[in-house]
Amino acid sequence: MLGRVDAVHGLYGFVLRPWAAVAGDSIEAVRAFSALGIGVAATASVVLVARYLPLPVAVSAGIATALLPGLAWTSVEARGYAWAAALAVLATLALDTACYHGTRRRWMVYGAVCLIACWWHLYLAVLVVAHGVAVVLGRPDDRRAWTATAAGVGIGVAPLAVIAWGQRAQVSWLADLHYTWDKVVVTQFAGSYPAQPVDTRTFVVCGLLALAVLGAWHLWRTDERPLALVLGTWVALPMAIGIASAITDAGLVHTRYITFAGPGAAILATIGASALPRRLPVLVGVVAVVTVVPIAMAQRAPDARPHDVRAVAEAAGGVNADAVFFTVPLARSVAFAYPAEFSGMEDLSAVRNATPDPFFDETRDQVTLTHRDVAGRRVVVVGTREAPGAQRLR
After folding, report:
1. What is the pLDDT of residue 352?
2. What separation in angstroms does the CA of 217 have from each of 1, 210, 272?
3. Tens digit of pLDDT for each residue in 180-223?
4. Has residue 262 got a pLDDT over 80?
5. Could you tell me the CA-to-CA distances from 285 to 47, 277, 299 in Å, in that order?
């Protein structure tokens, strides 16, 4: 499986199989797995904050984590990013426990959680580095323990990193994403598919980051400097890498790869809001809900996702075709997801067999099509974009 699926998302597909065996493989069942991940992220956020601040602040941090548009989007996406955020919170919680107790067993637990997190989503190695920066600056007595643990995690993650490096061609499309640095920041925390004006999302993100800075300053001023460093580096390092990738046009980071920084930002922003005088925290909470909920709801609207493969499958099945031609391998995922619509159609684009791999197999060069292939047939063509040979196919 690691040889055929993007290894950056190592464990998601592996874990999703037993989940689907129990819950089914319907759209609702598969997406429910992501929703559960955000539930874990929100709950773990409450536990982490409750160690240092009153319970109302901790519960508010959990709610903010669940409602942050960038994370709310991952909760309905059939991908592993919601659980990446959950594992980021759990790893931070394990670090806090290890630093507090200082036992070898606690550090081993921290290492195990980090190893699972990095195998789940390779970019979570950035979080481990952020933890190291926080430990070096805020907990000098724990430097040696963290270094030994991080070294073990690095050895355990190395095989996955080697596989992912060998699969660079699978993510070559990242080089075509010309993000501006501000779009990286907005999309990271406010979601990728909003049906809202970008100004609304910009307002939310600016408020989030302003309150997060205030929260970090409040923790620093109240002698909770280690927590301020852990939360601050958790947010700042992934965001800095995303911005750097956008400015240099390196094509190394998609905004959804760094959404695991969302819980850290939500926690810091909640702490910052709680530090405001008098009834301002309540006012901030009301404004947050009023601005965030419409964005989160818009992300679920039908027009928020332009690539509706179910609609494509229904359109293809409605033409009563005898054969199908997929212009690119990725287009086969439509028939893979909704095979009933394509029943009875011969795949003219198959190179090696009648049931090719839907994602990384080859498609037949359209130039090789002959009159004999299409004579007397009604052929439906499915592609992700206007193919160079589309006119010939017509």
Report:
1. 76
2. 46, 11, 8
3. 888 889 989 988 765 455 578 889 999 999 999 999 999 999 98
4. yes
5. 20, 14, 21
What is the amino acid identity at position 383? G
Higher per-residue confidence, 292 vs 27:
292
CA separation for the pair 208, 205 (Å, rounded): 5
Q: At CA 252, angle to CA 92 and CA 42, rounded to 5?
A: 30
Q: Token digits for 359? A: 């994602």
Q: For the packed helices 262-274 and 181-190, what is the interaxial angle rounded to 10 degrees?
A: 80
With pLDDT > 70 as the criterion, what percentage of the chain qualifies? Answer: 90
Would you say 114 and 43 are in contact if contact means Cβ atoms under 8 Å apart? Answer: no
| CA distances in angstroms from 224 to 65, 229, 233, 278, listed in the order given | 21, 9, 14, 22
User: The pTM is what?
Assistant: 0.84
Two structure tokens written together for 326: 């997929």
> Is 61 in contact with 54 (CB distance < 8 Å)?
no
Find residue 325's DSSP bridge partners: 381
- Report in angstroms the alpha-carbon separations of 377 from 313, 320, 340: 19, 10, 20
Distance CA 394, CA 382 (A): 12
**Top-confidence residue, 270 or 302:** 270
Task: State the Cα torsion 267-295-286-34 to the nearest 10°.
Answer: -40
Residue 192, Cβ neighbours under 10 Å: how many? Answer: 19
Distance between CA atoms of residues 319 and 379, nearest Å = 9
| Tokens found for residue 170 | 């699978």
Amino acid identity at 2:
L
